[in-house]
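Listing S7. Sequence submitted for prediction.
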Amino acid sequence: MRLEFFIEPATTMCAVHLFDMTTKKVFAERVAAPTFEKAIEGYPWAAAIDMLGNI
């Protein structure tokens, strides 16, 4: 697993997502937000955790 943090240069929007290094899959789509704190709060953690159970 890797927790990735992104900043979109054109908009300076922040985003995070979980990425499975073995299967090369993103567990849930990232959510753009004005800060990393808001991106973390808005991330669909329940969906990502469900995906973890399916590995």
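Caption to Listing S7: primary sequence and predicted structure tokens for the chain studied. The mean pLDDT is 89. Residues 45-52 form the longest helix (8 residues).
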